[in-house]
């Protein structure tokens, strides 16, 4: 029984570490892609930086509370959390389940001024202006 308990504890710990590495890798790819698009004032597709399957992408801006996150997603997501001032919470959903979430610093790419907050894979195209200002949804760009 002790061996099984220790195995389960290690498995849970390792899966958490794996998810942390996946989040770090996604954050790095996203930051690099935003920087590259910003150099030209161009667009980028979110699918260019994700190596996992997802149906919808959600942006939660600063000061949104955990309960509002759950309500908006329409699922009882136990990892929902309040969004701090200098971050946006980016959530990827597949088949009604969160498959990836990322606390993304607004200094690396500011999604907070985007008017829409839910995107399909096809709609998740964003513009990173040369002036370094907030990102926009590509369809909202002038």
Run of helices and strands: HEEHEEEEE
Individual helix count: 2
> Judging from the principal axes of the Cα atoms, what is the shape?
globular
Radius of gyration: 17 Å
Q: Distance between termini?
A: 63 Å
Number of strands: 7
Would you mind describing this structure in some detail?
With 142 residues, the chain is an alpha+beta fold. It is built from 2 helices and 7 strands; from the N terminus they run H-E-E-H-E-E-E-E-E. The chain has a 4-stranded antiparallel sheet with strand order 4-3-2-5. Strands 1-6-7 form a 3-stranded antiparallel sheet, with helices on one face. A hairpin with an 8-residue loop joins strand 6 and strand 7. The N terminus is likely disordered.
Overview features:
single chain, about 140 residues, alpha+beta, three-stranded antiparallel beta sheet, 2 helices, about 35% helix, about 25% strand, globular, disordered N terminus
Helix and strand topology:
Layout (H helix, E strand, L loop, with lengths): L1 H39 L2 E3 L10 E5 L5 H8 L13 E8 L2 E9 L12 E3 L4 E3 L8 E2 L5
Antiparallel strand pairs: 1-6, 2-3, 2-5, 3-4, 6-7
């Amino acid at each position: 029984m002790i061996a099984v308990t220790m195995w389960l504890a290690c498995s849970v710990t390792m899966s958490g570490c794996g998810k942390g590495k996946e989040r770090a890798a996604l954050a790095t790819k996203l930051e690099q892609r935003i920087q590259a698009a910003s150099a030209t004032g161009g667009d980028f597709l979110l699918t260019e930086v994700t190596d996992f399957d997802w149906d919808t992408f959600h942006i939660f801006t600063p000061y949104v509370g955990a309960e509002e996150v759950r309500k908006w997603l329409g699922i009882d997501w136990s990892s929902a959390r309040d969004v701090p001032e200098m971050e946006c919470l980016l959530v990827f959903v597949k088949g009604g389940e969160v498959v990836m979430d990322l606390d993304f610093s607004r200094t690396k790419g500011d999604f907070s001024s985007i008017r829409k907050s839910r995107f399909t894979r096809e709609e998740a195209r964003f513009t990173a202006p040369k002036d370094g200002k907030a990102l926009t949804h590509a369809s909202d760009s002038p």
